[in-house]
Design brief:
The structure holds two protein chains of two kinds. Chain A is mainly alpha-helical. In chain A, 53% of the residues lie in helices and 6% in strands. Chain A contains five helices and two strands. Chain A has a two-stranded antiparallel sheet. The radius of gyration of chain A is 17 Å and the shape is globular. The two termini of chain A are 24 Å apart. By secondary structure, chain B is α/β, with parallel strands linked by helices. Chain B folds into two domains: 202 residues, Rossmann fold; 94 residues, no CATH class. Chain B is built from twelve helices and 13 strands. In chain B, strand 1 and strand 2 form a beta hairpin. The chains are: A mainly alpha, B alpha/beta. The interface between A and B is medium-sized, with 18 and 26 residues.
């Protein structure tokens, strides 16, 4: 996994790590059961504060993306978020709403938004669906 | 809970010249606190007071709950110090420095220190006086961290060092933090290092903290926006929550905190597009906030209020 971060970005470093890991899983670069670097290794590697890495891992664990096994480290979760179906659906709707709203203000209409989403999905197909 | 470091309304002057005028802040357990400020802002004075080398003229500071003016050897043994210029005895060899340090500490990982020394490529027999600035900095940090301090205080450890050596120093600090969860107070003027490692930053200016905030909070709350119309004084006065207006080609760049609808409306009046969410580089923000001799218009009170919010 190639984790790149930009410390000068307005986005907090821990959020950058959270997104990079989620993205690597969604791209199929990381699969269920894969081990993540330890907090110490990743902090060393990126030359950042280990507290920041630990915070990112906690967030990923709470979101069900990774699991922590005592003494063995952190692994990509074999299962999905573990959230109730209704809650997952609510969050998806929220994301779509955001996409549509921001897309509209960038000057895109319904067809262009639909096309952009399909293009993205065919250019970088998702790995097989995760069970909730 | 005992706070690792606490400054409470600390005052200090040298002769007629006030250096600290009510310095107040705390460092919480496991936190990495970066103290920023221009040369002469009082960073070194603050650290000397904290470590009991200099008495405050008002207020007080505490290390691990112990008044800095009455530090016991037990408390001192729990603190690692890397001083400005990396004060070490020139006649000692690298190995002697480590052995000496090990002798003054309750806990000292001599084996770990030797392994690290090897990894950094320091010759154990080399005399300190013959080491380069970067090597002295490495040795000094090695000596300070291998005593497994609960608090590490570093006074501008990166001064005069190149990027490669600075990365090595960051690595040694990161290892200490991973292994022990130590609290760190460091001063620096290299802001890219701050963005990597600091949990919280304090900007010392005029003897007090102008900003005392987490880095994420600061990043999330300060925006910049380019404005083509208006004079500097008018912008600083009439745009709500504008910290500063910096002249640019064809207009001004505004530094804004907690942008709200009132700010947006004012920006449109001055011909700006909707304010792009574009947080400033820490470096730019630092320069703006500590710039002296800015004309102080009516807007200054707004800026001052905004700064109060950031403290």
């Amino acid at each position: 996994m190639n984790l790149r971060i930009d410390p000068a970005s307005p986005e907090p470093i821990f959020e950058q790590i959270v997104f990079r890991v989620k993205n690597a899983v969604a791209q199929g670069e990381l699969g269920g059961g894969d081990r993540l670097p330890s907090v110490r290794e990743l902090a060393r590697d990126l030359a950042i504060n280990p507290n920041t890495v630990a915070r990112a891992y906690e967030t990923l664990e709470a979101a069900g993306v990774i699991v922590r096994r005592q003494g063995a480290g952190c692994f990509v979760s074999e299962r999905g978020s573990g959230l109730a179906t209704s809650e997952r659906r609510r969050r998806l709707d929220e994301l779509v709403d955001r996409l549509v709203t921001e897309g509209f203000h960038l000057g895109y209409g319904a067809r262009e938004l639909r096309d952009a989403l399909s293009e993205r999905l065919s250019a970088n197909p998702l790995p097989s669906k995760r069970d909730a | 809970m005992t706070l690792p470091i606490r400054f409470d309304d600390v005052h200090r002057s040298f002769g007629e010249k006030p250096v600290l005028r009510g310095l107040t802040f705390t460092v919480r357990p496991g936190e990495v606190y970066a103290l920023l400020g221009r040369n002469g802002a009082g960073k070194t004075t603050a650290m000397r007071i904290l470590l009991g080398f200099l008495a405050p003229l008002g207020g007080k500071s505490e290390l691990l709950g112990c008044d800095s003016r009455r530090l016991t050897p037990q408390v001192r043994a729990r603190v690692g110090l890397v001083s400005e210029g990396h004060a070490l005895y020139g006649w000692m060899s690298v190995e002697e420095v480590l052995a000496f340090e090990a002798g003054t500490r309750a806990r000292f990982e001599l084996t770990k220190a030797r392994a690290l020394r090897e990894r950094l490529g320091l010759d154990p027999r080399a005399k300190v006086g013959t080491l380069s600035r970067g090597q002295r900095a490495q040795l000094s940090l090695l000596a300070a961290t291998c005593g497994e301090p609960e608090i590490l205080v570093l006074d501008d450890p990166a001064m005069g060092l190149d990027a490669v050596v600075r990365r090595d120093l960051l690595g040694v600090m990161i290892d200490l933090l991973s292994d022990t969860g130590a609290s760190v107070l460091f001063s620096t003027h290299i802001l890219s290092d701050v963005e990597r490692i600091a949990d919280r930053i304090g900007i010392l200016h005029g003897g007090r903290l102008l900003v005392d905030a987490t880095l994420d909070d600061l990043k999330g709350r300060v925006d910049t926006c380019f404005v083509p119309n208006g004079e500097r004084a008018a912008l600083e006065r009439d745009v709500p929550r504008c910290l500063a207006a910096k002249p640019r080609v064809g207009g001004h760049e505004l530094f804004l905190v907690d942008v709200g609808d009132d700010t947006r409306r004012a920006l449109v009046r001055f011909g700006a597009q909707a304010p792009a969410r574009r947080a400033p580089a820490l470096e730019d923000l630092f320069v703006e906030l500590t710039a002296d001799a800015r004309p102080i218009g009516a807007g200054a009170s707004t800026a001052q209020e905004s700064l109060e919010v950031l403290r």
